[in-house]
Amino acid sequence: MFHAPYPTALHGISSEDALDAVKGLFKSDVDPKRVAAIILEPVQGEGGFYAAPAEFMRGLRALCDEHGILLIADEVQTGFGRTGKLFAMEHYDVVPDLITMAKSLAGGMPLSAVNGRAEVMDAPAPGGLGGTYAGNPLAVASALAVLEVMAEENLVARGARLGDKLKAQLGELRSAVPQIGEVRGLGAMVAVEFTQPGTSKPDAEYAKKVQQHALKNGLLLLTCGSYGNVIRFLFPLTIPDTVMDEALGILSAAVRLA
Ligand SMILES: Cc1ncc(COP(=O)(O)O)c(C=O)c1O
Questions:
Q1: What are the start and end residues of each CATH 3.90.1150.10 domain in the chain?
Q2: 257 CA → ligand 1 middle, Å
Q3: How far is the CA of 160 from the centre of ligand 1 (A)?
Q4: What is the structure's pLDDT at 222?
Q5: In this predicted model, what pLDDT tens digit does every residue of 181-227 receive, in sequence order?
Q6: Which residues contact 73 (CB under 8 A, 6 or more apart)?
Q7: Would you state the pLDDT for residue 116?
Q8: Is residue 74 in contact with ligand 1, taking CB distance under 6 Å?
Q9: Probe ligand 1: pick from 39, 43, 50, 77, max atoms within 8 Å of CB?
């Protein structure tokens, strides 16, 4: 397996840089004819909640088409309404060959799935793919219930609305908190990145202080990113309005360390 950098404008990596890095791997490390697939998250989860720019996604698709490589979108974290669409790839004019999904798929029951082009999905012979717990009836029933509730309660749109509210609140804090380097997000997948004021240098210390402040007041926050300086939000799409508002209040004080 080979890794290439993800485009992160804040840290000076453009889509062109990231595509050049893949092309560089093909020149010096691996013959593209030997590459079965390129897999990426449309919005990086653990990596820092960076969304892939459209031109990067298009560039990867073009590289895959040129060399007969499959493009796999890992939607384990982004799928099922997390980004304001049912799947994050719907934000792009690019179609992946395969999509991986899990997490929200079954609302907490252990289930994962792969979907994609029929030609790829039908490639394994019957019995060629399996596992002890494959198709677990309870988990599958849970996934069916999730799909029903998502449609009934319009959770994709609700997630986008709550994400916008959160993003707007974090944006408003920028003038008071110079450590806020960037507020970003796609739908409900929102993050705030802390940097040393006036620079793009990561400030993990500040992120930790915010996290501790929030924890003292009853709000659990998760960090992410290579530098641990990003706080990300993964609230349940079913969160009651009153609980969300309470969380936003605690968050606002925590980000200001007030
Ligand atoms: C984007 C992404 N892909 C894959 C995984 C691994 O998923 P699983 O635990 O279902 O193997 C995770 C887990 O956190 C994830 O966030």
A1: 155-255
A2: 32
A3: 22
A4: 96
A5: 999 999 999 999 999 999 999 999 999 999 999 999 999 999 999 99
A6: 39, 40, 41, 42, 87, 88, 89, 96, 98, 99, 100
A7: 97
A8: yes
A9: 77
Residue type, 20: D
pTM: 0.95
* CB atoms closer than 10 angstroms to residue 33: 9
Task: State the amino acid at position 26 in one-letter form.
Answer: F
113 lines ligand 1 (CB under 6 A): no
State the architecture of 9-152 in CATH terms.
3-Layer(aba) Sandwich (3.40)
Encoding tokens for residue 246?
A: 């309470």
Q: In what order do the strands lie in the sheet with 180-186?
A: 180-186, 189-194, 230-233, 222-224
The whole-angstrom separation of Cα 204 and Cα 257 is: 14
Per-residue pLDDT reduced to its tens digit, 38-84:
999 999 999 999 999 999 999 999 999 999 999 999 999 999 999 99
Residue ranges of the chain assigned to CATH 3.40.640.10: 9-152
Atom of ligand 1 nearest to the CA of 103: 10
User: Whose Cα sits closest to atom 3 in ligand 1?
Assistant: 76
CATH node for 155-255: 3.90.1150.10
pLDDT tens-digit map of 125-177: 988 888 888 889 999 999 999 999 999 999 999 999 999 999 999 999 999 99
